[in-house]
Amino acid sequence: MFENTITGIEEWLEEMHQHLINLQKQAERNLIRNWVARQSIETSTLRKLRVQSKKQTYINELKRDSQSYSEKLSAFAKGQWVDKAKQIVEQTPHSLDSL
Known about the structure:
The chain is 94% helix and 0% strand. It is mainly α. α1 (2-76) runs antiparallel to α2 (80-97).
């Protein structure tokens, strides 16, 4: 009878030990999910916003530069080829909007 009690206690202790290990693993997962993953998502979001901002800045610069080029081209050169080139240059900002 005494041996059965000790065996039961040992089994109970083993179960508690496994339960504690599982609780520790769950706590570690929660820590990773709530701390590390959140920071990673925030960093990723911030980088995406920076890239989007730079992209918009470059697009605006290209639009401005193509408009300036078009104006200067028509001021310095004449002819059909200039009209065609100017048309193409003026279409550039519209194609940039689709990026």
